[in-house]
Amino acid sequence: MDQSDWNSVTIIGTGAVGTALIDFFQNQEMVIQSVWGSRSGRIRTKTGDYLRIQSNLPENDDQTGALVFITTPDDLISTVANKLAVTNTEWKNRSVVHCSGNLTSEELSLLAKAGAGTASMHPIQTFKQGDSAERFRGINISLEGDMRTTDGLKKLVALMNANPIHLSKEQKRVMHIAAVFASNYMSALMYTAVEYLANEGMEEGIKILKPLILQTAQNIVKNGAVDSLTGPVARGDITSIRKHLNSLKSNDKILRIYQILGKEAVEIAKVRGEVSNDVIGEMLEAFSE
User: Fold this and answer.
1) How do the domains of the chain map onto residue ranges?
2) Residue 75: its pLDDT value, please?
3) What is the pLDDT of residues 238-248, one digit of tens each?
């Protein structure tokens, strides 16, 4: 099955990604055969109306589109796939895709054995409930799975005005870890900075840091992480570093985060080659105390 054969779609899971996909397919005027939440489903009838039923999965051909997206939480994907594989559905004429960043198309193995095309399609972007199809515009979307299905998805991604990236199973896992660092852990880092300011009586931390955060992100996107490093480590200012470390001795959690990130910043300074080896050694020693 490829994109030209996908004349109808089923969405299983109505979270942020699922609802954005629904908006996309509606904009494309593609037939949405059914949508399934955790407790009930909506099935398109022959008249074009939708009938709500008390079930959370399609059970036959009439309830199942040619292209099925599973957009449930990761720990439910294999369970959903395994249940679908034993329904009264002809899978040889269908493709099933999940949208997990961490899991591969192996989660859909029983559906593949039943004859379905299988793949994973992960939008490398942060989504929140209520996002529309516009959230896909300009982003990168990883594709992994059998060749016919991923080739069809490549065309679908182009309709989203997004960029497809074909990945192996191992590359997909690596990409997801990198995305966690770039997005999720960035939020954690900003929380740490704002929390530290609040503990010292400065309550509007994010407002204070916003121009710095935005400019740093712009610099990294434009010039790369190595050329965007500034501050004490970049200039080999061991005096400022030691003062910071001394100030943080009363806050063990933030001290440890500062030390770990400081060592990583020293690695960047090494690559740049603008700080002497002696100062590099002093900084590493300070961050290890």
Assistant:
1) 3-167, 174-288
2) 97
3) 999 999 999 99
